Amino acid sequence: MKSLASIRTVLGVLAKSACLLALTSWIAAAAPFAYITNAASNSVSVIDIATNAVTATITVGANPTGVAVGFDGARVYITNTGNNSVSVIDTASNAVTSTISVGNGPGGVAVGTAGTRVYVANGVSNSVSVIDTASNTVVATVPVQNGPNGIAVNPAGTRAFVANTNSNSMSVIDTATNSVAATVIVGLRPFGLAVNRDGTRVYVTNDDSNTVSVIDATANGALTQIAVDDSPNGIAMSPDGTLVYVANFGSNTLSVIDAASNSLTATLGSGGVNPIGVTVTPDGARVYVANSTSGGVAAIDPVANTIASIAVGLQPTAFGQFIVGITPGAGTLQFSAASYSVHEGAGSAVITVTRRNGNEGEASANFATSDGSATAGGDYTATAATISFAAGETSRTVSIPIADDAAMEPAETIMLTLSNAVGATLGAQSTATLTITDNDTTTGSVFSGGGGCALYDPEANPGAGERRGIDGCLMLMMFAALLGLLRHRAADAKGYFRASLVSCFLNNGHKLKPFVLSLSKHEWPSTGSEPAPDLIRGRTEIYGFYLWNGTLACRRPR
């Protein structure tokens, strides 16, 4: 079996040095840097991945192996296998700000929900240390099976998965109770772990089986085994969750797995000897591999199959997520659909915004409406809000008030937009359309309420056919508007014009059907008071017209 002698001496029971933090989904941030642990140099090399130049070298504890980037990118956690500690690096100053004592033989390390907890697999103690990141102290120790190596936390932060190398198993830890909720049998000598973007699958590298186990994280059962090259160690997922990369220690290769089909699609060179750690850049364009025996760190373009080699310290291992500028498991925010529909009489439209491909930590986005063919203030109430997701939340809703006016009108649209995502990125569906369907109809029957004004549908009432025509409707519209203007009542004039228009034409599917209005002078109601404005703009199914003190007005039937 292949291993690194110096780290193997310290751990005593592990097949390899330490373990792997699984990579979940990632989100790009500014100025990504790679933090590479050098097990034989007791140091961490900092690489600017824009230039592939080493910009700093940081002294840490003995035999550093595992790496985990803090949720906000401000800190990096390094496991020191040789002296049973975790070094905390401030990424702004590239200085060690704290050293935390943990169990024996720490290797794999993972950052949990919202960055408040760090989980460390102790390969000799057969335990997982839980660190409070606010106080940098161990707040719990969880016993697991023999030789825990790789460790990963699901995007919701509710489960931590641990590969137990010497027990051929995976422990599932309930992070709320810090206890083992399940144990799953995997391949021989499991080493590294990766969780997919929605937390439904766990990928486990099996060092002696030369396979990757795919585990159903919801049922805690094995789904399939994928054959790869010799002695698979490190494992990482592409930012979009479509590809899984596996570093094969014994064959000096990089296996590429299609996550949808769980099939091997390519095998690339690792750019060196005995690769262990692997991480993908935020844009998915390059894969960085730590080659522990020779070759340093390789920056691989998986499409062009080109390699750039970067010299670092002795025996680079870099287990885990080692690129700062990647937020594990934060996911994307988007509308649940491209289009929505609401009936005018519903009162409001409920719009769903989802968080996909990871939901670790808090996230938010700005929501806003804008006019399509619908008009704010008349057809709906303009709505702007900040939609916030707590850690673990995957769905939020926002309501848009819809006006139920009395006018018969075609379907109208409202434009919906998400912007300014914080703690996550915007998904592809960051815009959507809301369609308002009308609830105002005309039956063609004569309405009651004092007579004097009748609305006829010429097709439903053939006897009125001789009075059919558009010109009469247009004249009526102008007459109604003119009366209102003469009385210096612009608002009423607008109301009359609209009432006349929609009464003359009915949008019947794709056909505009003319109507005939029969008017006679009839003062109704006879209360001596002028009709209230809501009689013009109120909810209605049929508009009626009558003469009120010489002014054309409209009223809904009762």
* Global structural class: mainly beta
With helices defined by DSSP (H or I, 4 residues minimum), what is the helix count? 4
- Portion in beta strands: over 45%
Low-confidence stretches: 1-30, 441-478, 480-558
How would you describe this structure to a colleague?
With 558 residues, the protein is mainly β. It has three domains: 5-326, Methylamine Dehydrogenase, Chain H, CATH 2.130.10; 332-437, Immunoglobulin-like; 453-555, no CATH class. The protein is built from four helices and 44 strands. It has a five-stranded mixed β-sheet with strand order 7-6-5-4-28, with no helix packed on it. Strands 31-38-36-33-34 form a five-stranded mixed β-sheet, with no helix packed on it. The protein has a four-stranded antiparallel β-sheet with strand order 3-2-1-29, with no helix packed on it. The longest helix has 17 residues, at 470-486. 49% of the residues are buried.
SSE topology:
Layout: H1 5-11, E1 28-38, E2 43-48, E3 53-59, E4 64-69, E5 75-80, E6 85-90, E7 95-101, E8 106-111, E9 117-122, E10 127-132, E11 137-143, E12 148-153, E13 159-164, E14 169-174, E15 179-185, E16 190-195, E17 201-206, E18 211-216, E19 221-227, E20 232-237, E21 243-248, E22 253-258, E23 263-269, E24 273-280, E25 287-294, E26 297-301, E27 306-310, E28 319-320, E29 323-326, E30 332-335, E31 339-343, E32 348-356, E33 363-371, E34 384-389, E35 395-401, E36 412-422, E37 425-426, E38 431-437, E39 453-456, H2 470-486, H3 490-504, E40 505-508, E41 511-514, E42 516-519, H4 534-537, E43 544-548, E44 551-555
Helix pairs in contact: 2-3
